[in-house]
Structures are given as structure tokens and as C-alpha cells.
Amino acid sequence: MPRASAGPVPVVVMGLGVIGQEIAKAAQLSPEVELIGAMDANPQLVGRPLADVLGVPGLTGKVAGTLEAAVGRRKGVVLLHATGSRLEQVMDQLLDALKLGLPIVSTCEELAFPFLKYPELADKLDRAAQKAGVAVLGTGVNPGFVMDRLVATAGQVCGPVRRATVTRVVDARTRREALQRKVGAGLTEDEFFALVDKDQLGHVGLVESAALCALGLGMECDDYEEEIVPVFAEEDITGGAFLVKKGKVAGIFQSAVGLEEGQERVRLELTIAVGADEPGDRIELDADPKLVLEIRGGIPGDRATAQTLVNAAPRVTAAEAGLLTVLELPAGR
Fold it and tell me: End-to-end alpha-carbon separation of the chain, Å?
């Protein structure tokens, strides 16, 4: 249901890292939401004026140390959650927010489609959300849009899709230093794979995107395969947060493949590397008619993720209670 007559939706941001700050800034500028507060567990941030933390003069209020303090007595508040990528690490935070009766829109990548890896946690969240009478949604640019929701939307103008191939290339020089580190820039090959083995490197959520993509296209994939390998610098690369020397890791090439009875139905390929050539997003649907969609330069990650969460906030207030995917998100901006 439209909410224009009800006024802006009050929101609180949880987690004031780089992405959380982007979300708060986007919320502050949006006519659809009202930024009423923010919280972070970092004692160096708690109590500081929000205007100083965000660098936005005129904002009132201070960073709270608890969610209860950030929400105060306001009703109808939506939580914009940005504290982690792994569902197990943020599960308690989500449940605590549901106990307060808050709808949640989160950047947690594994929350985008938790039914694949964490069916028990997904069921627990769904039951808690239904009990609270609110919706919970994991979203962002990827997973949440480029390699899943946008693909499913494109598939609506085609006949049955036989195969979907999606590629996304990101020049990490345009992104924050933390992401450049996360894709292994500057490491040796041995250092790269040592961190991969510890699940400390690479993009989280690609297989969740593959599952969402398959679901949105009406496919019944019964198995998923993932791969991650390094991309090496062919020459010294400058322009990022630090110099990447020739021969060192510049980033990652990561893939997720959805199979149906051994047949490949979905292939997602993601390259995030310092100095990556020809950044952009490409969707190819093998269907009748065949469809190819290209976004030159690609959708910007951090800012677009922030806008995705802010734009979803009014939508979740109109959604049915429970754990949602972006495929169930009500239409509209």
C-alpha cells in the first residue's frame, strides 16, 4: 500500500562503518524516510554527535550504544541494519530487533537467501518476525539486485529461460579500502588461498544470488557449485588505496553455478580487482526471445547499496510479516 499520505517512515541505522554511514546519509536525504537515530557498539562512537560522525551539519542527536536508546519512544520505526555479512554473526542482533517489534532491512549478504545454507536459522527468523508482525529483508546491490532481482525482472519479458549467465566486473579502485583488502589486493598467491580457506576473503552472497536468480526465473536447481581464484596484477597498479605490485594478487574471480539434474541453468561470474578492465554488468538470458542487458561501468556498489536499503524501508512496512526475499518485495521505488 502507498505510504505517501502517512509521511516519512522513521528509520534507525545500526552499524556505522563505511556502509552504515552511507546508509545514514542516504536516509537523511530521502523524502520517504526520516533518520531518527543510529547506534553502534564501538565505544569510540557512542555518545558522539551524529552530525560529526557523518560529516552532515545540522543533524541532531548522538550515536546510541543500544538499539532501545536509538529508537526511543518512536513508533513504526524500521531498522536499517549494517553490521556483518554472515548470518550466524548477526542473528542475535536481528532477534533482539524483532523483540522490539522493528521491521528490518539488512545488508547481511547471507540473509538475502538464508534458506540455502541456514534453513533452521531462516525458520527461526521467520517465526520471530511473524510473531512480531513485521517483515525482515536482506538486500543490497549484490546480492539483492544486479545478479538476482534484476535478472528475474528481465526474465518477465521472455519465454521459459533455459540458461542465465550474469557477469559483473568491478574495478576495486573505485571502492573503499576495506573492499580492496577483502578481495586480497596486494597479497601473494599463498596468502590469498590461506585466507580463502579461513573464509576471510572473497565476496559473500554470490551463491545466494544464484539461488535467488534461479527461483525468480522459475528454475528448480538442486545443486550449487562455487569457485574463487585470484586475479594477478600484470603490472604495478596505482590509483587504489595502496600500490599493488606486478605479480601480486589484484583481486578475485568468483563464480557460482546452479545445476538442475547436472545441467547448468545459472552461471554468475564476479570479478572484483584493482584495475579490472571494462567494469560493467551483463545479463544474458537464453530464452525466446533471447535477451542481453548491459550496464556500462556497472552499478556503483556502496552508494547503490545504501539507496537500496533506504528505498526498501517503506516497502517492508507494507509487506506481509515474516522473512522475505527481494523477489517478494512490493513493487515501487
Answer: 12
- State the cell numbers at 236: 604495478
Residues 6+ apart with CB under 8 A from 38: 12, 13, 14, 16, 20, 24, 50, 53, 61, 63, 64, 70
Nearest residue to 80 (alpha-carbon basis) of 134, 29, 37: 37
Q: Where are the alpha helices (DSSP H) in 77-188?
A: 87-99, 119-132, 149-154, 177-182
d(CA 219, CA 299): 26
**Residues 33 and 2 sit within 8 Å (Cβ to Cβ):** no
Would you say residue 34 has pLDDT above 70? yes
Give the other-Cβ count within 10 Å of 145's Cβ.
21
Q: What would the pLDDT profile of 188-243 be if each residue is shown by its tens digit? A: 999 999 999 998 998 999 999 999 999 999 999 999 999 999 999 999 999 988 99
Specify the residue for cell string 596486494. 186
CA distance 276 to 252: 10
Among 162, 172, 157, CA closest to 241 = 172
- Asked whether 98 and 129 are in contact (CB, 8 A), the reply is yes
| C-alpha–C-alpha distance, residues 322 and 133, integer Å | 7
Cα gap 181→248, rounded to integer Å: 13
Question: CA of 203: how far to CAs of 81, 108, 216, 225, 272, in Å?
Answer: 19, 12, 21, 15, 9
